[in-house]
Amino acid sequence: MPNIPLVDLKANYARHKEGIDAAMKEVIDNTAFIQGPAVKQFEADFAAFSQVKYAVGVASGTAALHLAMVAAGIGPGDVVATPSHTFIATVEAISYTGATPRFIEIDPETGLMDPQELKKNIDGVKLVLPVHIHGRPVDLDAIGAICADAGIPLIEDAAQAQGSDYIKADGTKVRCGGYGLAACFSFYPGKNLGAFGDAGAVTTNDEAFAKKVAQLRDHGRTSKYVHEMLGFPERLDTLQAAVLKVKLTTLDADNERRREIAKLYSEKLAGVGDLRTPPETPNLISNYHHYVLRTGQRDALEAFLKENGVGVVIHYPVPVHLQPSYADLGYKKGDMPITEAYADSIVSLPIFPELTNEQVDTVVAAVKKYFEQV
Ligand SMILES: *Cc1c(COP(=O)(O)O)cnc(C)c1O
After folding, report:
1. Which of 7, 224, 251, 299 is the Cys-Cys partner for 352 at CB 3.0 to 4.6 Å?
2. pLDDT, position 63
């Protein structure tokens, strides 16, 4: 029986072992654990990669979202528009500031925040926080125009979108990270750019905003023992920065390989059962953090693939508006029908740069076998 994991972090480490081991050893030899030189070096490299002026390393993707919203002045009484089809951290970060989430329905094909729905629900919103879910960028021009009309900022949850590209209406290509006021990235180990623990970054083209986030992540410091504002212990760990700096060097190529794998899956699975492969969106160029299939037989397909050694996962089975931790918002099943139908139909296949074409064929064969026996 095959054993194909959803992601293979060991295969990834094997590729980078020499560089990572040396980079970590240098940090340890210098005992430069907090705000060591590797942090600034990685920040410069990641800003260049993301085509923005500033990247501020922080402790996690959740911290990136939280600090960016605090820096944007979001607080108690404010309303932040965001999707319910996301990882819980997007919404938790809103709650940490004291603000309230307003959930916006998604496009039924892409799973991304629907600009028309945002427009209908924009009254009273103080900030829009769309999510580039599964690595596919939201329609930034459409959402950006609504924000501009309302006179409110846009912050991207780019936790899954390192190196995803957006083609604007005028044909210019922009990378996720610099479109709005800021973007928030996660370097959780399984993300396309993954650390050896928790890590994240806020990117922006606004110098004052970058300075504020940098201060907030480090106890509000202006100098070692002068604290201008209340901050947080949310710095990017130097050891993580050293790891990330090495792995960033192959990220564009790694994302390209993921796109190649996605193309193979979509070609080989076209017309199989009732499967719907990810939609073609020529202006929204995914880094394929997830490869998401949709089917009316999701639960049975998921169980069959797991029994047959294919590491599939549901990203994400319970939308945030139906999470027990958000019961106090008063949502019930049926309140967000498009989001709920989407969550009930999705399953993610294994995808990572080291996945071989033979492994792709094994996954495809298992999916086909399921539809042959039903
Ligand atoms: C991973 C993720 C986060 C949180 O990042 P952490 O580094 O785990 O804190 C936030 N939003 C989305 C969409 C994510 O996928």
Report:
1. 7
2. 98
Asked if the 251-373 domain carries CATH number 3.90.1150.10, the reply is yes
Q: Does domain 9-248 bear CATH number 3.40.50.450?
A: no
Mean pLDDT, residues 257-268 taken together: 98
Predicted local confidence at residue 124, as pLDDT = 98
- Ligand 1 site, residue 162, Cβ cutoff 6 A: no
Distance from residue 216's CA to the centre of ligand 1 (Å): 19
Q: What is the pLDDT of residues 31-59, one digit of tens each?
A: 999 999 999 999 999 999 999 999 999 99
Pocket test for ligand 1, best of 188, 244, 287 (most atoms within 8 A of CB): 188
pLDDT bucket at 374, cuts 50 / 70 / 90: confident
Mutating to test ligand 1, I would choose from 155, 160, 192 the residue with most ligand atoms within 8 A of its C-beta, which is: 160
Task: For ligand 1, say whether the CB of 90 is within 6 Å of any of its atoms.
Answer: yes
Cα 84 to middle of ligand 1, angstroms? 14
The 3-class SS string of the chain reads CCCECCCCHHHHHHHHHHHHHHHHHHHHHHCCCECCHHHHHHHHHHHHHCCCCEEEEECCHHHHHHHHHHHCCCCCCCEEEEECCCCCHHHHHHHHCCCEEEEECECCCCCCECHHHHHHCCCCCCEECCECHHHCCCCHHHHHHHHHHHCCCEEEECCCCCCCEEECCCCCEEECCCCCCEEEEECCCCCCCCCCCCCEEEEECCHHHHHHHHHHCECCEEECCEECCCCCECECEHHHHHHHHHHHCCHHHHHHHHHHHHHHHHHHHCCCCCCECCCCCCCEECCCCCEEEECCCHHHHHHHHHHCCECCECCCCCCHHHCHHHHHHCCCCCCCHHHHHHHHHEEEECCCCCCCHHHHHHHHHHHHHHHHHC
Provide the residue ranges of all domains of the chain, joining segments of one domain with +: 9-248, 251-373
